[in-house]
Automatic annotation (TrEMBL):
Keywords: DNA recombination, DNA-binding. InterPro entries: DNA_brk_join_enz (IPR011010), Integrase-like_cat_sf (IPR013762), Integrase_catalytic (IPR002104), Tyrosine_recombinase_XerCD (IPR050090). The keyword Acyltransferase does not apply. Residues 214-242 are annotated as: Disordered. GO terms for molecular function: DNA binding. GO terms for biological process: DNA integration; DNA recombination. It comes from marine sediment metagenome. Residues 32-195 form the Tyr recombinase domain. This is Tyr recombinase domain-containing protein.
């Protein structure tokens, strides 16, 4: 339809040919639901995460629902004591940051300063590592991408009992209604909900091989970005294409 409309519009404008497409309505298709993991698949996915880099990228895409570009833009100085600054598509926003998720991100600090990127590799390389995790978990019926993890987090938030309004706010959708904006929760209210309904932490509580204490202690709202546990990187270099 788009190709024919463009063709007839051009011929009509250039040569005065009658445009029959003006009488044909644009076809409407039912929007397909975004790809996402089931609860069991998500547990299997988390069970194969091993290195500090893998936990950090899963924290971004699944625990914090980041988009690819947001993870690439993330700086160490954006990681605060109990919130994180997100450089989004349209605006800069703040999200609540639970202690365990904060610790997973700061394991990549490795002595670098606040202006340094959390991931000093490109978004394509992060996507490659994400895809490798899907393969390792034996998940091949959905696309192994960061966006699949983001979609999964949005769905499982509701499965664990979280409300849709807070879910939309945490996903930072650009098409939120005016009512959504008037009824927005503040970051402290979102923090309390994250402690209870965050899908990544809820799944980790169900896995025998991960940390049993996934809550941690919330610090005061000081801008401390230092962590005691600093470890070196351990990750596979993605293959280069010729």
């Amino acid at each position: 339809w788009k190709a024919l409309s463009a063709l007839y519009k051009f011929t009509s404008d250039a040569y005065g040919v009658r445009n029959p497409m003006l009488k044909i309505e644009k076809p409407r298709f039912k929007k397909k639901p975004g790809q996402r993991l089931s609860r069991d698949q998500a547990k299997r996915f988390l069970s194969v995460v091993g290195t500090d880099l893998e936990w950090a990228l899963v924290t971004c895409y699944f625990g914090l629902r980041f988009r690819r570009v947001e993870a690439e833009r993330l700086r160490l100085g954006d990681i605060k004591s109990d919130y994180i600054i997100v450089q989004g598509k349209e605006r800069t926003e703040e999200l609540p940051l639970l202690p365990l998720l904060r610790d997973m991100l700061l394991k990549l600090q490795n002595g670098r300063g606040p202006l340094s990127p959390v991931f000093p590799i490109k978004a394509d390389a992060l996507a490659y590592h994400t895809k490798q995790l899907f393969k390792r978990a034996g998940i091949d019926d959905v696309r192994g991408s960061p966006h699949t993890l983001r979609n999964t987090a949005g769905r499982l938030w509701l499965t664990y009992g979280g409300d849709d309004r807070a879910n939309r706010q945490l996903l930072r959708h650009g098409n939120r209604t005016m009512t959504d904006h008037y009824s927005e929760l503040n970051i402290d209210e979102l923090y309390v909900l994250e402690e209870r309904f965050n899908p990544m932490l809820n799944l980790m509580r169900e896995l025998p091989t991960t940390l049993t204490n996934t809550t941690g202690v919330r610090e005061t709202k000081a801008d401390s970005q230092s962590g005691d546990a600093i470890s070196t990187w351990n990750y596979e270099t993605p293959p280069t294409t010729v």
